[in-house]
Write a structure and sequence with these properties.
Layout lengths: L2 E11 L3 H13 L5 E12 L5 E12 L5
Antiparallel strand pairs: 1-3, 2-3
């Protein structure tokens, strides 16, 4: 049975909240393996002119065990 770890990351996009979520996942995939799930916690507009989408997401991934 594996152990799953959960982290929270924020993705950004100037075009849409969906793109912000996709950007968060794409960046996470650069350093994480065995991603098992993604939950969108919240989305909203940020910036001085409220022209940048932000998406807070929880990403779950399998923790690798090191065997001797």
């Amino acid at each position: 049975m594996g152990v799953v770890k959960i982290i929270e990351v924020i993705g950004r996009s100037s075009s849409s909240s969906d793109d912000a979520v996709r950007n968060a996942l794409a960046e996470s995939r650069k350093t994480l393996r065995d991603i098992k799930g993604l939950d969108v916690v919240s989305v909203g507009l940020r910036g001085d002119n409220l022209d940048e989408w932000g998406a807070l997401v929880r990403i779950s991934f399998l923790v690798e065990s090191l065997s001797e």
